[in-house]
Every structure is written in structure tokens, then in C-alpha cells.
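Reopening this ticket.

The earlier resolution said the output was attached, but the attachment link was broken on my side. Pasting everything inline this time so it's all in one place.
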Amino acid sequence: MIRINLLPYHEKAKKANLARQVIIIVGSLSIFLFIVAVIQAVMMASIYSLKSDIKEKEAQLAVLTKIIGDIDKAKADKKLLELKLSAVTALEKNRLYPVRLLDEITSLVPAQDIWLDKVTQTGNSLQLQGVGRDNIAISRFMKTVETSKFVESVEILSSKQVNLAEMKLQEFTFSCVLRKGI
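Inline output:
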């Protein structure tokens, strides 16, 4: 005889299997969503931490930029002061130079033969204008000036005869190149 079981035990097994599969899928999905939520929370915390670090570093950068600006200003002020100090030192070093130069030139002028009208210094050039008895006296004066320790070279610019107080005299202009560092 054939026996037929009319109880739906296969159906119960299928339902139990389906319920187990649903539980596994829901559990897996729950675990996956939990892991994604944890990763998201870690990422958000990391982003927040990085943003706060950026703000802190930007604040430090602003402070350091201000300090660098102050340092650059101080360096510029120092450079300006050093420039002024070097100018004062150069002036102090050379303050007696014009006096010594004029003293030297006046000591070289022969009193009876040459009369200076104008002495002009421009940079390292000295121009002498005056009147002499004759060309020979002017020539001797030029050679004497050229032997001075202040003068490097002498060049005549002009010489012409003029009548002063009914005397024929030579009016002259010559230029001297001055030595540096004396």
C-alpha cells in the first residue's frame, strides 16, 4: 500500500529555510549598514579633525606672516640705518679733505705770477680759473699742481690773453682729476 502524507512538511521546511535566509540577509544587511555607519563616523571625525587643524595652521600662518613682515621691516630699517651710518662715516672720514685740498692748492700758487679767481670741485674733478703773468707761469703752475698728492692729472681747458689795468695777462682755465682715498 502506498502511503501518502498529506501534511505539508515540505512547505514548513521551505518556510523555515526562507525565514532563515531572510534573517541571514537582514542580519548581513544590518552588519553591512553598521560597518558603513562606523566608517562614515570615523571619516566625519577625521574630516572634522583635519578642518580644525587647517584652521589652527591658518591662524599660525597669519601670526607668522605678521612676524615675517615685522622682521622684513626691521631688516629694511637696519639696511637704511647702515646706509646712513656709512654716509656719516664717509663724511666724517672726508670732512677735512676739502680743507686740505684748498690748503695744498693755495700753497702751490706762486704769489707774484698766478692769481686764482675761481676753484670749483665737482665729484673727483677740480676746475681752476685765474690769471697769470704769461704762459710760462701758467705752465709751471700746472706742473706744480700735477705733482700734488691730491691731483692725478691736469688738463688745460682754455688760455687767452686779456688786458687788466693796462697789463697784458693770460686768463686760464684748467681741470684736474683728483685722486680718491686721500
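Reporter confirms the inline version is readable. Strands lie at 114-122, 125-132, 151-164, 167-178. The CA atoms of residues 133 and 169 lie 5 Å apart.
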